[in-house]
Amino acid sequence: MGSPSRLVRADLTADALFPLVRATFDAIPETRTGPSTIPRGDALLSAFAMFSLKDPSLLAFDHRRRDPNDHFRTVYGITRVPSDTQMRDLLDPVDPAALRPAFRDVFRRLQRDHVLDTFGYLGGQYLISVDGTNYFATTSDGIHCPECLVKRNRVGVVTHYHQMLGAAIVHPDHKEVIPLAPEPIVNGDGHRKNDGERNATRRWLRAFRRDHPRLPVLLVEDDLAANAPHLRDVRAARAGYLITVQPGDHKFLFDALFADDAAGRTAILTTVDSDTGIVRHYRSHHGLSLNESNPDTRVSVLEYWEWSAVGDLQVFSWITDQPLTPDTVYDVMRGGRARWTIENETFNTLKNQGYQFEHNYGHGKKHLSVVLAVLMILAFLVDQAQQIGCPAFRAAWAACGTKRSLWDQIRAVFRLFAVTSMGAILRALADRSVCPPLVPHNTG
After folding, report:
1. Which of 70, 235, 297, 430 has an alpha carbon within 20 to 30 A of 393's alpha carbon?
2. 140: which residues sit within 8 A by CB, 6+ positions away?
3. Residue 74 domain boundaries
4. Are strands 183-185 and 120-121 parallel, antiparallel or unpaired?
């Protein structure tokens, strides 16, 4: 079907997706027992709007709340916007797992509109890049919460920090990604024992399969995932795997590779790209034990060398359960290298392109920091859906030049002009002639 960024889908505009997100928020059971003047759905959607607008802090968003306009109602469907203190209080008790349906419902919209067709790979599977990342760290005693992870260095300095296990559907030919519901890596034992990426991945796999029981997927992961317990978890989740391995971390496996090669049991393929001059050399191995402790855990291994036209060399290796034949090794190699997409197009975007992923929006006494981080990733998913299927979004982005400039100008129009939808804002940025002249608010 071609690049997803060429698609045009009315259901993938912000104006179609915001009500969908609101519906999932409204479905979260209310746990407050006393009277409330602000519905929890309004509080959740207000935090989502803060990340949709890329406000750099809760304080900046609170100033916007006082602007003399009704854009939060007309653009986002928010009846009452809480103050920064009210937002913290309302969101702190929310279980982050309660936000998973929002990701699932946006994903189903993408699925229904055939966006996923363009992401199919290796026989119709979907590559899911999974990795952990830090999004907050401080040595200040006063800035932390019960879910902070804790580490102490050799001189006794204590650092509180947060991590998240992120996951996104990726494709070697696409810059867009489809973020899936993340899994928090949190301290669940009163600061006595930190959670870890391996446990978070196990939880994520189970939750993913509950949300998407029939989706054919192939996990692409880093070297830390190349262990027998994780491979058993992957098989239990009915998923495939394509995992980086390094000689220094898997001596037993690489000794077996050398023995295989010396005995002539290795399948070898070398190709030369006539257009670029790139030389590609593949060695495939089958049925090798992953390590000495797990001889019954058998894997296939793809080794890959690539020389550029000027002689620069790159070397990669992966374990996999995918067929390795002369017809498949090129695609397997590209799928394995797509693992970096979650770092380059997801974490880097969240940290460096206006989303302020590493900013401390608040900690609270329970889940506040995690809830806000999950809502930020949800806003990123909605932005990616617009980038794929909304021509007005792509036109406004092109007119503004960069994503940061786009976010800046969306905030400016949102604050200063009379608009009734996000679509109107985007069309105004792309071409002012396609909508009525913008009328400044009377701020006198």
Report:
1. 70
2. 160
3. 1-95+365-444
4. unpaired
Q: Give one word for 364, left, alpha or beta, with left for phi > 0 and alpha for psi -120 to 50.
A: left
Number of C-beta neighbours around residue 353 at 10 A:
17
Q: Distances from the Cα of 77 to the Cαs of 42, 121, 218, 420, in angstroms?
A: 8, 38, 37, 11
User: Per the structure, how many domains does the chain have?
Assistant: 2
Type of residue numbered 182: P
End residue of a domain, out of 293, 319, 345: 319
Judge if 296 and 376 occupy the same domain: no
pLDDT, average across residues 70-81: 90
Tell which residue, 143, 136, 156, has the closest CA to residue 350. 136
DSSP state string for 96-130: GGGGHHHHHHHHHHHHHTTGGGGGEETTTEEEEEE
Backbone angles phi, psi at 42, to 5 degrees: -65, -40
The residue ranking higher by pLDDT, 349 or 189, is 349
Residue type at position 86: Q
Contacts 24+ apart (CB under 8 A), 302-305: 302/329, 302/332, 302/333, 302/336, 303/257, 304/280, 304/329, 304/333, 305/280, 305/281
- Encoded tokens for 1: 């079907």
Question: Sign of the C-alpha dihedral, residues 245, 248, 253, 257?
Answer: positive
Distance CA 16, CA 343 (A): 29
- d(Cα 302, Cα 304) in Å, to the nearest integer? 6
Among 301, 278, 279, 280, which Cα is nearest to 289's?
Answer: 301
The answer to whether residue 268 sits within a structural domain is yes
Tell me if the pTM is above 0.90: yes
**Assigned domain for 384 exists:** yes
- Helix pair 197-211, 228-236: axis angle to 10 deg: 10
Pairing of strands 183-185, 158-170: antiparallel
In a domain, 29, yes or no: yes
Q: Tokens 């060399």: give the residue.
A: 313
Average pLDDT, the chain: 89
The Cα 136–Cα 361 span in angstroms is 10
- Read off the pLDDT of residues 25-44 as tens digits, 9 standing for 90 and up: 999 988 776 667 889 999 99
Strand, coil or helix: 91:
helix
For residue 366, count CB atoms less than 10 angstroms from its CB and return exposed for 0-12, middle for 13-18, buried for 19 or more: middle
- Integer Cα distance of 342 and 219 in angstroms: 12
- Rounded distance, CA 433 to CA 71, Å? 22
Radius of gyration of the chain (CA): 24
C-alpha distances out from residue 326 to 143, 207, 285, Å: 55, 36, 12
